[in-house]
Amino acid sequence: MSQDLVLYNTLTRKKEVFEPLTPPFVGMYVCGPTVYSDVHLGNCRTFVSFDLIYRYLKHSGYKVRYVRNITDAGHLEGDRDEGDDKFSKKARLEQLEPMEIVQRYTIGFHDMMRLFNTLPPDIEPTATGHISEQIEMIKEIIANGYAYEVNRSVYFDVEKYSQSHNYTILTNRQMEDLLANTRDLGGQDEKKGRLDFALWIKAKPEHIMRWPSPWGVGFPGWHIECSAMSSKYLGQTFDIHGGGMDLAATHHTNEIAQSEACSHTQPVKYWMHTNMLTVNGTRMSKSAGNGFLPGELFTGNHPLLTRGYSPMTVRFFMLQAHYRSTLDFSNEALEASDKGFKRLMNAYKLLEKLPPSETSDVDISGLKQRCYDAMNDDFNSPVLIAELFEAARIINSVYDLKSSISESDLKELKKLMSDFVINVLGLHEEQAPTDDIGKLMDFIINLRLEAKNNKDYVTSDKIRIGLSDLGILLKDSKEGTTWNKA
Ligand code: AMP
Ligand code: ZN
Question: Whose CA is nearest to atom 7 of ligand 1?
Fold first, then answer.
């Protein structure tokens, strides 16, 4: 933690020196996925961006408690508490229990996160596991006079709150503009004010996910889950709250209002928002139907793709843009990232083969300084990657005996590459895809069979023992030979 880390705070709309509330501890909450369908590549971009931030905070010596929730309840289709519950709708369509939907897509999400080599959060709470905490918080907000009950639902009173608080503190929008953009309530709506949002919603008979509460059987509004879970695990005020930019105007604005109305505190010191992954300039989203599934990207099985790209190439592609810039998907950009990623990893492998000299004509400490400067400037991964390409150029030049490097500089360069490429950027070398390994194994097993048929037992044993030394065991049976990893 020798230099100042500076980050952009959405709340103050400027870059600030990062000063945790109780150093070296850092509490970080990130809004997680809504698990009623597969995560698309846009969602993954946000989680990869926060993975970079988490990794760098840890690398800088902070003890981070990273909480990322799973939204598995109470999320209606419209932003303003209308439409169907997405889980119930999907469950009806697929004739499953809502919790089967939740389980299926949570597992899929974890698989994706592992493929992208993101570190798991320290706590991963679910909304359905924290209903009582949400109810307690709603009770407190009602007691403080900022929410009201109508017909067994509870709404947050935005007008009342705005009389004493700045409701749009996060986005700095004008209340008049907000009201102008919200449709009239009409006679049907039970809310008092147009901007009011639900804290608890009375369950209709067909609503499957439902819980008892002081107001009757129902389910929580979306925003209250994050307020309840973040304060439970990180306290009433904590350091960092993150999510995609699309969440700032409604979800995070309402989170701030709920926490202020409940415990009279600003819940978060630094709000951080990641920018969107776009396709031809349009935000990738589930509702727009322009979402790529990561699996489609890996296999190339999508009309917009010319071929498949590996998870590490896609991770590298994401990190080549700053988290606050938009990133537009294109085959050309992915092709360039593929080359860049391979160049970096080849240089990383070459490190072990570099011959140290008496003297150095390369500047490793300057390079190291520039890598830290990049990351300390609001986690600027594209500038960091440009510096690491410079490291790759040095490595290749020393390998070709065009430059020389001293023993101590070489040690420093190895540490720099392992710190930044492996630990901070979270990249790793990739194995050949399993179906390629399968084809390779078929080829080797056939060679062994040929040797056996020719009574060349020396060769067939050599193949079997050689594979066993590599941890691959062959099993012969009447049906043929199969293999598995020891
Ligand atoms: P959701 O599952 O829709 O609640 O989204 C999970 C996370 O992904 C949220 O933090 C969103 O802000 C984020 N997100 C959604 N769409 C995109 C996108 N196109 N690019 C980057 N992040 C996104
Ligand atoms: Zn949230």
Answer: 43
